[in-house]
């Protein structure tokens, strides 16, 4: 029994790690065979070897912290504003009708190109990065919140009503729990978009954390270090993924 | 019957009124900022200047070949990226093992800015539209795969049990049970994926190109012809809106 | 939907020209600028056709993007790419060679402040902020030299991005001064909105440093040296033509959406002929020193160490 549980738990983990190891091995082989220039795609071993210099000379950890904080704040704001907005679009049919497609369009808008406008309004600082990333992250939160609430079966709501629940009780006892998986997905997407946007804008305006570092290393042709910095962007998203998982478990009852 | 039709018309009327009112408010706010001089007018030009620039673009024949190119790139990106995303999403969502084993890595990789892979894509797909399509495809794949994977897991278990009791095969299960239930997550995935696909193509064009909407935007910006830049951005917005409308029609969202 | 896809595939296939033996792929940063456009002008005048060459031009946003294009072999030749970046790539054994100079000194770069702020020269920048484009760029290095030569030690130098972004920040008061390449901003100078506080070429050191070069991918050079030689012949002819035929001024004006007069004064006042002589290469030691300071090369180097970086395929 214990063995079965352990294998159910570690089997997938092992499979995933094996797949990653195979991919890295293939990459190493391609680089070793010289199929792609090491300046364009350095082997994983060179990337791993670049970490000490990245940490000692390029300030990897403070930059990581900065990018993490900016993305976290931007996505947090997107959740605080986006969830109620999504609920509003769900609750008021006319609002949903009027704005949902606009929100979706907004998600597709190349907002990142508007950075000169934001530079003028907010200046060259973390404010610009956070504001733009907040706007980039919000549509996903709004759309997913609405999708989650729309997807609740009317039976549930009717049952709630027949038990005499008020609007706010209905929301907390029925609507929220039933839509948490979808909304959490939205939060996760919001974090993804926030992080892409934060790194991208840091990259564009030469300011701040990992994005600026990636650009700088690219200009200096320190490709191995550049991929090292990129792997820290991946690490940031791992942290976010872990946090949202915890959040989902904490909100969802049972 | 008449009553219902009347109230439906009333409903649609109020939606349109709301949209028009919102547009007017946005327009007035923009004009107020442009006229106030709070912000440097070079960056916040009057919407009349933007309108004139837009008219100028739309009446020049050369503009359309650029839009066509970017549109074509984005369309192919969405087809490839969304197709792959749905396939991978289904595979991950249907198997608990595959989902636990591989899905986290998708979540980890999704937020890496795809633009950093442009050098590799250049080597693989050349400097032309190929590398732009690859960028768009890569961008579109992740939101679709993640949206579908989580959608699959939320398919009503009752439906699945019914399917199994009818002894449906794997293909039939996907066609009759999963796909219909997956319409909303696929629609969301498409909406989000379309956006990042367009942005991916535009950014790649901005970095390196000789045609396309991104190329134009870069040109207007570097010459500081800001009204033209906004006009080109409005076209990009419009393309995205059109794409969304097509998606909405294509998937025929229930009740919308 | 299917129609749309079919249509788009047709468009994209149409956009990829069939590979011909004599097609040269060329990357150009900063579309429309004077010296980066010589090959564009020459192409319009048919100089490259005379040499049996068909140019396939791609524009880049500059910096490492141009270098990436040529190092990855996506293009055969890149014009007007920074010497510093090429030194950096070469020392990391990138397959790239310099075939000629492109710009010696930075004739096109100038620094400006908003009119009426009291800042009139580089000396006035004490305690003020000034924007350059990106770390390690010529706008950055020339600025540091100018500040040093003028004894300004406490100016705040800020990476402010491309000229339009810098201009925006200067005009909205976030920066006290900024950089620009002509013809950007000339109309504003004429209208009295901004004042020039210094040119990069005010410094003799900057004036005599080859800051931009034309480069070739090493594989392309090995495979088709003859085509590269013919490219340089046509390029040299284009350069001579640009300074002798007034039609070049028309091209500059049209490409940048500015008046003929403005274009003419840009060439007369800033973009001197000797600055763009492809065969004047100097100040390489200075480039190497700057590369070291900007961490673009790992250790100090002498000119002899980078001899192999040059392959001057043809000289007039």
| Overall geometry of chain C | globular
Low-confidence sequence ranges of chain A: none
Low-confidence stretches of chain C: 12-20
CA radius of gyration of chain A is 22 Å
Question: In summary, what is this structure?
Answer:
The complex is a heterotrimer of chains A (254), B (256) and C (316). By secondary structure, chain A is mainly α.
Description:
The complex is a heterotrimer of chains A (254), B (256) and C (316). Chain A is an all-alpha fold and 254 residues long. Chain A contains eleven helices and no strands. Chain B folds into two domains: 44 residues, no CATH class; 207 residues, MetI-like fold (Orthogonal Bundle). In chain B, helix 9 crosses helix 10. Chain C is α/β, with parallel strands linked by helices and 316 residues long. About 3% of the residues of chain C have low confidence.
List keywords for this structure.
heterotrimer, A: 254 residues, mainly alpha, MetI-like fold, 11 helices, C: 316 residues, alpha/beta, D-Maltodextrin-Binding Protein, domain 2, 2 domains, five-stranded mixed sheet, three-stranded antiparallel sheet, 14 helices, 10 strands, 40% helix, 20% strand
Task: Explain the layout of strands and helices.
The complex is a heterotrimer of chains A (254), B (256) and C (316).
Chain A: H1 2-32, H2 44-49, H3 51-57, H4 60-91, H5 93-108, H6 115-122, H7 126-150, H8 154-162, H9 167-205, H10 210-219, H11 223-251
Chain B: H1 2-36, H2 47-59, H3 61-94, H4 96-109, H5 118-125, H6 129-153, H7 157-165, H8 170-181, H9 183-207, E1 208-209, H10 213-222, H11 226-251
Helix pairs in contact in B: 2-11, 3-4, 3-6, 3-9, 3-10, 4-6, 5-6, 6-9, 9-10, 9-11, 10-11
Chain C: H1 2-15, E1 23-29, H2 38-44, H3 47-50, E2 54-60, H4 64-71, E3 77-82, H5 83-91, E4 96-104, E5 109-114, E6 129-132, H6 138-149, E7 156-159, H7 163-171, E8 177-181, H8 186-190, E9 194-199, H9 204-207, E10 210-217, H10 218-223, H11 225-242, H12 247-256, H13 260-269, H14 284-293
Parallel strand pairs in C: 1-2, 1-3, 6-7
Antiparallel strand pairs in C: 3-10, 4-10, 5-8, 5-9
């Amino acid at each position: 029994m214990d063995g079965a549980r352990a294998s159910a738990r570690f089997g997938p983990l092992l499979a995933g790690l094996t797949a990653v190891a195979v991919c890295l091995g293939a990459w190493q082989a391609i680089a070793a065979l010289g199929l792609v220039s090491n300046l364009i795609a350095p082997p994983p071993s060179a990337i791993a070897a670049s970490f000490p210099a990245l940490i000692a000379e390029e300030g990897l950890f403070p930059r990581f912290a900065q990018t993490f904080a900016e993305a976290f704040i931007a996505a947090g704001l997107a959740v605080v504003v986006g969830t109620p907005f999504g609920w509003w679009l769900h609750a008021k049919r006319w609002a949903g009708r009027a704005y949902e497609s606009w929100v979706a369009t907004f998600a597709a808008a190349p907002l990142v190109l508007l950075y000169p406008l934001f530079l003028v309004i907010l200046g060259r600082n973390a404010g610009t990065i956070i504001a733009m990333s907040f706007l980039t992250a919000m549509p996903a939160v709004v759309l997913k919140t609405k999708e989650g609430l729309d997807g609740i079966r009317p039976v549930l709501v009717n049952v709630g009503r027949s038990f005499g629940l008020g609007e706010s009780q209905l929301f907390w006892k029925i609507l929220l729990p039933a839509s948490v998986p979808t909304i959490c997905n939205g939060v996760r997407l919001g974090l993804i978009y926030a992080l892409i946007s934060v790194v991208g804008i840091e990259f564009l305006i030469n300011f701040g954390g990992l994005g600026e570092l990636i650009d700088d290393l690219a200009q200096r042709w320190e490709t191995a270090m550049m991929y090292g910095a990129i792997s820290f962007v991946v690490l940031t998203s791992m942290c976010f993924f872990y946090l949202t998982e915890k959040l989902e478990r904490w909100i969802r009852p049972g | 019957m008449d009553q219902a039709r009347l109230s439906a018309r009333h409903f649609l009327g109020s939606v349109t009124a709301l949209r028009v009112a919102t547009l007017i408010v946005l327009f007035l706010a923009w004009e107020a900022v442009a006229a106030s001089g709070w912000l440097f007018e070079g960056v916040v030009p009057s919407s009349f200047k933007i309108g004139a620039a837009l008219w100028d673009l739309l009446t020049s024949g050369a503009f359309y070949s650029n839009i066509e190119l970017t549109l074509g790139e984005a369309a192919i990106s969405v087809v490839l990226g969304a197709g792959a995303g749905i396939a991978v999403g289904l595979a991950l969502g249907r198997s608990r093992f595959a989902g636990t084993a591989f899905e986290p890595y998708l979540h980890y990789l999704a937020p890496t800015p795809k633009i950093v892979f442009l050098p590799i894509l250049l080597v693989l797909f050349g400097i032309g539209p190929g590398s732009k399509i690859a960028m768009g495809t890569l961008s579109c794949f992740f939101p679709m795969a993640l949206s579908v994977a989580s959608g699959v897991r939320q398919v009503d278990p009752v439906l699945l049990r019914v399917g199994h009791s009818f002894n449906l095969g794997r293909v039939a299960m996907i066609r009759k049970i999963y796909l219909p239930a997956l319409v909303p997550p696929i629609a969301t995935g498409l909406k989000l994926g379309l956006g990042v696909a367009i942005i991916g193509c535009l950014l790649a064009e901005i970095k390196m190109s000789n045609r396309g909407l991104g190329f134009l935007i870069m040109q207007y910006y570097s010459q500081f012809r800001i009204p033209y830049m906004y006009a080109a951005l409005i076209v990009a917005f419009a393309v995205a809106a059109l794409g969304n409308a097509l998606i909405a029609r294509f998937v025929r969202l229930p009740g919308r | 939907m299917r129609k749309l896809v079919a249509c788009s595939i047709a468009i994209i296939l149409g956009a990829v020209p069939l590979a011909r033996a004599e097609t040269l792929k060329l990357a150009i940063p900063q579309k429309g600028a004077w010296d980066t456009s010589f090959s564009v002008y020459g192409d319009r005048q048919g100089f490259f056709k005379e040499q049996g060459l068909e140019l396939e031009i791609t524009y880049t946003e500059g910096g490492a993007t141009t270098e990436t294009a040529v190092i990855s072999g996506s293009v055969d030749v890149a014009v007007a790419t920074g010497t510093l970046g090429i030194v950096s790539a070469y020392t990391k054994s990138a397959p790239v060679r310099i075939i000629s100079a492109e710009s010696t000194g930075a004739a096109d770069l100038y620094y400006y402040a908003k009119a009426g702020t009291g800042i009139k020269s580089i000396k006035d920048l004490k305690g003020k902020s000034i924007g350059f484009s990106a770390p390690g760029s010529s706008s950055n290095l020339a600025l540091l030299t100018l500040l040093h030569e003028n004894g300004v030690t406490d100016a705040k130098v800020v990476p402010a991005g491309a000229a339009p972004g810098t201009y925006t920040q200067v005009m909205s008061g976030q920066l006290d001064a900024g950089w620009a390449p002509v013809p950007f901003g000339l109309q504003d100078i004429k209208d009295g909105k901004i004042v020039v506080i210094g040119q990069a070429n005010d410094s003799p050191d900057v004036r005599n440093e080859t800051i931009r070069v034309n480069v070739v991918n090493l594989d392309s050079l090995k495979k088709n040296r003859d085509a590269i030689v013919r490219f340089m012949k046509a390029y040299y002819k284009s350069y001579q033509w640009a300074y002798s035929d007034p039609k070049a001024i028309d091209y500059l004006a049209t490409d940048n959406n500015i008046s003929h007069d403005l274009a003419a004064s840009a060439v007369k006042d800033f973009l001197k002929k000797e600055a763009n002589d492809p065969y004047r290469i100097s100040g390489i030691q200075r480039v190497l020193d700057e590369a070291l300071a900007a961490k673009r090369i790992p250790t100090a180097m002498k000119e002899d160490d980078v001899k192999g970086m040059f392959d001057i395929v043809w000289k007039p």
